[in-house]
User: Which sequence fits this backbone?
């Protein structure tokens, strides 16, 4: 894979895992032709080894996974990914699937289970959908991280004031509760608004409710 | 439609939608020992017109109602679109992978091909009711 680009742009890669080289080549060419970055692996273990440890959780994109492969099967790989808390959406492709297998894969969170032979457009649509899901998930995660950072920048006193402000208490009441002057509360309150990067009480409450 | 009215409003309800009356009867008899109220419907329309309460519930749905392909799954998708989430087991008189995948994407809890294995289905329904209302089931 290439060197790190600017962090804000999500670098999504479609990881294709299949023991059939012809499938890998044709899918890779298909994705290249529409400008979607992709990486190919001839078995599941290679994929897991390539992205060991923390890095697997940081990946963006999706996985196209063959069900039946020598060594680790697609289903076993899906289980491993779950244990590693990898959030990449999984699309299964299979030449020999049956209904119970498809149901099992979907229960475990696969977003699609496609039978070979499939139309190229069908797979491309699924991949696009998977990439959108993944993008939304990354945005959600980074927003949470950002809010958490803001929360952590508050002092203990500011947190106390924020809790009371959110609960709808007036400055006067908070001042009395914390045994501080009303002026001091006003300053804390204004710091809270600055650090949480909000302009109104409504915004502050909304942020406080996000978990 | 034949339906046994709930005596106790807290009694969990199993809704069954299938156009074959024989299936409705067989399933009702199979699930009777669970001590649930069973309500049967022969079409998607009848089910959609039924007013539901807040009880613990489970829906058992035939994938192809009135022999119309995937019409049962369309019903499930309608429910989801309307923001109505009821734990659903889809039973399929005929099935293939795309139908199963569509049902699971429409948030079915399980997709089971007919003929179903009786004790496994009962177990599944009991599990669902237990999870959707742990306080009401003992």
Assistant:
């Amino acid at each position: 894979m290439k060197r790190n680009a600017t962090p804000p742009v999500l670098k999504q890669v479609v990881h294709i895992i299949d023991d059939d080289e012809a499938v890998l080549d044709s899918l890779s060419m298909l994705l290249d032709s529409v400008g979607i970055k992709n990486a190919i692996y001839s078995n599941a273990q290679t994929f897991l080894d390539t992205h060991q440890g923390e890095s697997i959780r940081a990946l963006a994109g999706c996985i196209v996974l063959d069900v039946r492969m020598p060594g680790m099967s697609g289903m076993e790989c899906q289980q491993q990914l779950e244990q590693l808390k990898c959030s990449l959406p999984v699309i299964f492709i299979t030449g020999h699937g049956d209904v119970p297998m498809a149901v099992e894969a979907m229960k475990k969170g696969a977003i699609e289970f496609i039978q070979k032979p499939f139309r190229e457009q069908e797979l491309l649509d699924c991949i696009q959908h998977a990439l959108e899901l993944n993008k939304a998930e990354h945005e959600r995660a980074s927003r949470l991280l950002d809010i958490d950072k803001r929360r952590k920048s508050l002092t203990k006193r500011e947190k106390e004031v924020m809790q009371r402000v959110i609960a709808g208490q007036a400055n006067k009441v908070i001042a009395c509760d914390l045994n501080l002057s009303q002026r001091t509360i006003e300053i804390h309150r204004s710091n809270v608004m600055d650090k949480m990067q909000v302009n109104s009480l409504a915004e502050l409450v909304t942020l406080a409710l996000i978990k | 439609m034949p339906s046994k009215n709930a005596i106790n409003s807290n009694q969990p309800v199993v809704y069954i939608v299938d156009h074959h009356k024989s299936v409705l009867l067989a399933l009702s008899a199979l699930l009777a020992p669970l001590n649930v109220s069973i309500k049967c419907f022969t079409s998607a329309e009848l089910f959609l017109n039924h007013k539901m309460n807040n009880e613990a519930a489970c829906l058992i749905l035939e994938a192809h109602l009135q022999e119309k392909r995937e019409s049962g799954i369309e019903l499930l998708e309608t429910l989801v679109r309307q923001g109505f989430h009821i734990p659903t087991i889809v039973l399929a008189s005929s099935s293939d992978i795309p139908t199963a995948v569509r049902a699971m994407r429409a948030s079915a809890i399980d997709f089971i091909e007919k003929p179903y294995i009786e004790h496994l289905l009962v177990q599944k329904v009991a599990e669902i009711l237990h999870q959707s209302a742990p306080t009401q089931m003992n």
